[in-house]
Amino acid sequence: MDLLDNLALGFSEALAWHNVLFCLLGVVLGTAVGALPGIGPTASIALLLPLTFGFDDPVSAIIMLAGIYYGAQYGGSTTAILLNIPGESSSAVTAIDGHPMARQGRAGVALAAAALGSFFAGCVGTLVLAAAAAPLARAALTFGSADMFSIVVLGLVASIALASGSTLKALAMIVLGILLGMIGQDTFTAVPRFTFGLRELWDGLSFVSVAVAIFGIAEILRNLHDPRTRTRVAAEVTTLWPTRADRRRMIGPVLRATGLGSVLGVLPGGGHVLAAYGSYAVEKRVSRHPEEFGHGAIEGVAGPEAANNAAAQTSFVPLLALGLPAHPVMALLLGALIIQGIQPGPGVMQAQPELVWGLIASMWIGNVLLVVLNLPLIRVWVRLLDVPYSILFPAIIAFACIGTYAIDQNPFHVLVMAVLGVGGFVLVRCGCEPAPLLLGFVLGPLLEEHLRRALILSKGDPSVFLTRPVSAVLLGLAALALVVTVLPVIRRKRDRVFTEEG
User: How high does pLDDT run on average in the chain?
Assistant: First the structure.
């Protein structure tokens, strides 16, 4: 009964006309900034945070900022599908199959699959947040640095399944991504490394610069290099709703991804990113047609989108229950709460129940608003590519430059984007997949931080990763995933050798 009473209190707050208005404003802004290349929820919330300083009601402020966040999770899939440019880190995996679907004239189906998967997972993720916030927070709190290191290792190994080409090249891209993520000041000593004497690199490379470069700029260069590969969506898309066969193929991935995202979203770090990549890896492994992945499999759109939206909802658990931000967006929301005179932590549900439950209830309202707003606009999004390339490409580059520069008004990030864009084009021409590189870049700093912290706490004893049961199990799963990935390659080479000798 307590849960029902709390939800009743939450809906009484969330359904107030001004809070519904702020929720609508948040999801509209979130969808817009998520759809713009180079502008993600972190940058948009950082820019809009000063607007909330004058809010009399902290509930309205946090509802609007939260709406921007999970709205951007959906909006990022739009340019990922239509332009192969992820607007947000977790949308990078959506582009792998979403963009090929768009090139096949199924952009409407891909966008509808993303919207429906996001809606279902968002609602379920909010239900998980409402029903199990305290138990999930306690479970996440028991994870030590050794366990977190093993989780990241498992995620990186699983990402090899994302690459449609060579396993060795996928491993190389992960290592390159980790090396790029290590640029900047050392986490523990603050000593600059890999900066080549450039002070601009002391803070490391911007995610926006790297993501837009290797996905967006590299894609434009590829199109300009070979006009036959130019990605274009038909102006008139006849099918905007998944067929019965599509819906059957979506059900399993959406259910599995919702469960995966709900769990991983609670963990500190890039839970929503790891959930999206993990969902893709799982679906590729369990699919009866794994060869379709990378060429327009609807499971590769519905699953990751469901996973990242479920994780977006449950990532509020450690913020509200423990006062611990799971990633940079949550850190900004934590700052907004503190500015409003609220200290998140174990006592916030008792001290400010209207805030916590009003926020939770607003997430259901926001998810309904997202699907109601975006499904009718699918034709509008699809017609975006009716613009001539001579106008479209410069406009994309302009948006990318504006978004990259807006992070901290530093033109150096724009230069980095240009250089990495050329590098990304070279890698694509060499047959390397950019997705594992991006995951290595995002999770590399987390991998290093937990590795070093675990070794410090164990006084340099590496056996800590095997003596902790959770860590040992996760490393065992990572080893198993690596063997499962490599064995088919070895088997094909052996069969080829036997054939040639025969």
Answer: 75
- By the 8 A CB rule, do 301 and 98 touch? yes
Comparing CA positions, the residue from 1, 133, 70 lying closest to residue 364 is 70
Rounded Cα gap, residues 468 and 488, in angstroms = 31
Q: What is the pLDDT of residues 173-185, one digit of tens each?
A: 888 888 888 888 8
Structure tokens, 421: 């864009």
Backbone angles phi, psi at 185, to 5 degrees: -75, 140
Measure the CA–CA gap between 215 and 443, rounded to whole angstroms.
18
Closest listed residue to residue 446, CA positions, set 158, 159, 148: 148
CA–CA separation, 4 and 74 (whole Å): 29
| CA atoms in the 13 A half-sphere facing the CB of 60 | 15
The H-or-E segment that residue 223 falls in is helix 218-225
In whole angstroms, give the CA distance from residue 339 to residue 345.
15
pLDDT digits (tens, 9 = 90+) for 358-387: 888 888 888 888 878 777 766 666 565 566
Dihedral-angle region of residue 143 (phi above 0 means left; psi in -120 to 50 means alpha; beta otherwise): beta
- Secondary structure class of 492 (helix, strand, coil): helix
- Give the total residue count for the chain: 502
> Which candidate, 469, 361, 350, 250, places its Cα nearest to that of 20?
361
| The predicted structure's pLDDT at residue 310 | 84
pLDDT band at 234 (very low <50, low <70, confident <90, very high): very low
Q: pLDDT, tens digit, for every residue of 475-488? A: 888 888 777 777 66
Q: Is 193 helix (H, G, I), strand (E, B) or coil?
A: strand
In terms of pTM, does the model score above 0.90? no
Three-state SS annotation for 67-128: HHHHHHHHHHHHHHHHHCCCCCHHHCCHHHHHHHHHHCCCHHHHHHHHHHHHHHHHHHHHHH
The average pLDDT across 70-74 equals: 74
C-alpha 302/C-alpha 296 separation (Å) is 11
**pLDDT for residue 99 is more than 60:** yes
What is the spatial distance between Cα 481 and Cα 477, in angstroms, rounded to a whole number? 6
Q: What is the pLDDT of residue 239?
A: 65
The residue behind tokens 């794994």 is: 290
Structural tokens at position 428: 């694509």
Listed in sequence order, the residues at least 6 apart from 284 whose beta carbon sits closer than 8 Å to its beta carbon are: 161, 162, 290, 293, 300
Residues 304 and 276: beta-carbon distance below 8 Å:
yes
